Amino acid sequence: MLHFTPLDHPEPPPFERVDGAPESGVLVVCDHASPVIPGRYGELGLSGDERLAHIAWDIGAALVSKGLARRLGCPAVLAGISRLVIDCNRQPGDPCSIPTVSGGIPVPGNAAVDDPEADARAESWFWPYHHEIGTQLAHLFRHRGVPAMVSVHSFTPCLGAEPRPWHVGVLSNRDRRMAEPLLAALAMRGELVVGDNQPYSGREINYTLDTHAGAAGLPHISFEIRQDLLADEAACEHWAELLALVLNPVLADEALRQAIVY
After folding, report:
1. What pTM was computed for the model?
2. What are the strands, taking DSSP E only, across 139-198?
3. Which of 13, 63, 76, 226 could form a Cys-Cys staple with 18, CB 3.0–4.6 A?
4. Sheet holding 148-155, edge to edge
5. What are the beta bridge partners of residue 223?
């Protein structure tokens, strides 16, 4: 099983950066990499099991992101805080940004969050994470031209009683430049059930990619991997290898290196 220690931290850093070659022309991001909750929040009133459940983070996504960045030789930026403290893939002020209920589970420590506390959480973790993404993209621009962004998430095998059959989902919005060849490459691996904008749609809320890539016309893609396929480090490395395998030919296409605003 995957373990994450330490579970709490008096003042967790807003992000973890994985260094990579700016000439790589690609940035990997992971919005829900960490279940860490600052000790002063008293675990937000949750049990230990709840703190390590999907409501707190995307299980396995951090290891896949690091393994993928290593194989691509590119930088990565991973959020350093649990999405229950503040969700780095939601606009501050959105009802899901600091949830009072997540996955049907009440989050008591968020029940009375006022504007000053919400602003303080955003200043401590949300904005530094996004500032670092912008900084890394600027470095890539200067060294390679138009960069690509790749986001990594994971999802639960069932939603309520409803099973989710997909092994991996490829999420996109209007820009399908990366989605179409990646869907085709994954579909060629007959053992995989691949979802096009499943189990979530990239046409809905996808703050990080929409803000940093979509609005600037940068090529981008988001992967969703089913969590039971990320049960240990070896499984996460397998998925990092697979994603690198299908991404490399797409990223090597120089036609991708132009900004298109839809």
Report:
1. 0.95
2. 148-155, 158-159, 162-163, 168-171, 194-196
3. 76
4. 15-18, 76-79, 26-30, 148-155, 220-226, 168-171, 194-196
5. 152, 170
